[in-house]
Amino acid sequence: MNKKNLTLLTDFYELSMANGYFMSGVSNEIAYFDYFFRRIPDNGGFAIMAGLEQLVDYLENLHFDDDDIAFLRAKGGFDDGFLEYLQDMKFECDMWSVPEGTPVFPGEPIITVRGPMVQAQFIETMLLLCINHQSLIATKSNRIVRAAEGRPIMEFGTRRAHGVEAAILGARAAYIGGCVGTACTIAEKDIGIRALGTMAHSWVQMFPTEYEAFRKYGELYPNNCTLLVDTYNTLKSGIPNAIRVFDELKPNKKGIRIDSGDITYLTKKARRMLDEAGHEDCAIVISNSLDEWLIRDVIQLGAQINSFGVGERLITARSEPVFGGVYKLAGVEKNGEIIPKIKISENVEKITDPGFKTLYRLYDKDTKRVLCDVITLNHEPAPAGDGYVIFDPAYTWKRKKLSNFTAVNLRKQIFHEGKLLYVLPKIDDIQNYCRGQVETLWEELLRFENPQAYYVDLSDELWRLRASMLEENQSSIHS
Predict the structure, then answer these.
(1) CATH homologous superfamily of domain 142-315?
(2) Could you state, in order of their start, the residue ranges of all structural domains in the chain?
(3) Which fold has domain 12-122+324-478?
(4) Which is nearest to 327 in space by CA: 40, 113, 53, 66?
(5) pLDDT tens digit string along 16-69?
(6) Model confidence, pTM
């Protein structure tokens, strides 16, 4: 089956504006757009960027088919010359992005697109769709993984995802965030994420007795004999029958899964029963509507758990199912000069940072831990030198001098004039990179409740540009 062309997966106003730009004679003027987000889901300390690979795939295949053009022509309202332009259009922009798996913070220019106005504007919808969804799930996954304190997390949410692509790409994002595998089988075939699973209650119910169900499963799968013990009665029936099968078959790998009930109480009892029967090596797997809060609580209460299967609350990010990334114009280019643009709002957090920017992360040379992030105008040198001053962009009297640090440009150039420059990493490399980057963060950022606010500062030149544009706007209003 041929892959569906997703070029028309866009908000209709993108096409209306593109037609307007074309008819106004500005379609090929160079524009700069930034992707950033304004707040971290679940009031967390940081988010995890994901979805770049799918965005790259979309941009490399961006084109209008004949039936797309025919559809737009029949819909009406579009100039014939514009439709002819679309017929031959391909992606010709420059793009910079932080790598997938990078911890990111509000207000940072995570992606910048530079190119002809029609193209740079048109890709907004798909860019937001790719990055917002997977960043949301990767962020949630990372929270859940950290709550488990080293115990493996399996993503079990396929059947609860919001559609086919959400299941597959949600599994991908969950893996980037730190899950060890997924229940989604196609994710292993297409992406390389290990598919995992045990049995359903229906397996147990299909046999005359629970013991016979367990026995047959153990005979079929001696290298992965994990038995679901809560179909009838976990402590009085399920675990005793599991122990009997383990005694008789001696499987190479054995475990029990509990999918209901009081997790802390049942796992403590189960551990004692298994150990007393000589099955200290039997793993205890827990599922059942879990999230980072429940996992953290049961661990603190002494629950005896080796791994978790987490479904709907991960794959849908149920506690906060929207990642509020936005895509805003930051500048236009006239005769080689960048003219900065700013969006002003009475809502202070919606005021944008103008101009063509880049993003640096400063690391302490001794500890290798992060110190802060600094957004600069692209032409500025990287932050350097002892006594480098950072300051709060809102409360400018809050200043700090830094020394003994290394500044790393977080962004990589992905496209140059539509040509892909970036080698997309393998999924395991992205996961390992994410793990390593999270380890550089302060412990205070890892808290689930009231995490320390991270410092994202503007360079002095960028701050002055922003302040002057705000002042000019106020002057023009009152003149």
Answers:
(1) Aldolase class I (3.20.20.70)
(2) 12-122+324-478, 142-315
(3) nicotinate phosphoribosyltransferase (3.20.140)
(4) 113
(5) 999 999 999 999 999 999 999 999 999 999 999 999 999 999 999 999 999 999
(6) 0.96
